[in-house]
Amino acid sequence: MVKSWATSPETLGVDLHIDVGGAGLRSGLTDALREAVRGGRLTPGTRLPSSRSLAADLGIARNTVADAYAELVAEGWLTARQGSGTTVAQRAVARPDRSHARRLPTRRRPTYNLMPGSPDVASFPRAEWLKAARRALTDAPDEAFGFGDPRGRVELRTVLADYLARARGVYASPDRIVVCSGFLHGLMLMAKVLRARRAREVAVESYGLDFHWKVLTDAGLRTPALPLDHLGTRTEELGAMKGVGAVLMTAAHQFPIGVPLLPDRRAAAVDWARTTGGLIVEDDYDGEFRYDRQPVGALQGLDPEHVVYIGTASKSLAPGLRLGWMVLPEHLVGEVVQAKGGEWANGSLDQLTLAEFIRSGAYDRHVRGMRLHYRRRRDQLVTALAERAPEARVSGIAAGLHALVELPPGTERSIIRAATWQGLALEGLSRYRHPELAPERDALVVGYGTPSDSGWAGALDALCNVLP
Length: 468
Fold this sequence. Notes:
The protein is of the alpha/beta class. It has 14 helices and 19 strands. It has a seven-stranded mixed beta sheet with strand order 6-14-13-12-11-7-8, sandwiched between helices. The chain has a four-stranded antiparallel beta sheet with strand order 15-16-19-18, with helices on one face. A two-stranded antiparallel sheet has the order 1-2. Strand 15 (393-395) and strand 16 form a beta hairpin. The longest helix is centred in the last third of the chain and has 27 residues, at 362-388.
């Protein structure tokens, strides 16, 4: 929510417009007034409106204005005397040096965030997590407070093997699982193992995350792009990519295009791995969240000896937990454990808490609840775009936490700029295009999982306002 206050020269002798926005009205008002004094728009001696008058203009509580005034008085920006009202303090205020303004533009913190890649962290199940943590701590064996097994706590690996088998169709046993600190950590370990095996290239999807590609290139591996069309990744072309020893894929829900890998293309990927002895690294980043389709099981279930499955709690719970898991072919477990090393073992208490959270059924309940939550968000996004931006075509919405919004050719960059001016954090499809790929289409990758409930309506309005 953004609230505005504008004065007129006739009333206060100064023409001033203040936007009050952000997480809290009081802090927003305080920051806006402080910046107006610092920047010289409110000069020493200027009398401010009464708290009652300004509160009425802004449509907020009088106490909010009074508290903001009191804070600025305490800091020395304002003075207040009985019967004289509140005025800007008579003090030397350093004017900003605007000589470098064009070279060093200031960046506004976005008011709204529709960036993909993050869940609604405000919905983290704090109470249930705390219960699980208490039970885990109470039941933890003494040896859990030692350095631990680099594969991870056996309690977590055991419940993960059961959960992944029933929820994602993953063939897993506790001995095949290595706990890591998230997908990026798991990919770093695999890059290290592949390089030690003298692999030279890892194929990647032509649209994806550049920091994943960077992990591979930093390990000395080339990352040729595997073509992708509206039906997903064209895995049948793997055979023509000589020198490729592995492929990185988002099979259940391609990021960012948003389509699942078709059955014949899944089979082609597995056939390639069996024929060449290659590996498939499967990023199951949001496999739990599907809405209008039957569950698409993990690719790993087709061939556990040629697929490295990596999942995390980042989307289902929160990225701040830094908990992920690798389900490995049996012959790779020792190499990955050696690459990880004992000093990188994850915190035992967090692992035990997650194990208890899953074992108790709280994880399943949370995922079911968030699936409904995100589906409502998705439906609201589609409805709003249909009503207010009917030219925009939405795709990739049967699962996941983001939607692809197709744009008229040549408009992506200008819309991203307009969104920035509106205080909306937004990303275009070109951000995820592999460097080898020529520009093909203009689109937005809209992450509807990121905003909190209080910010969702405003984010949706801001998006519709910048679309053609």
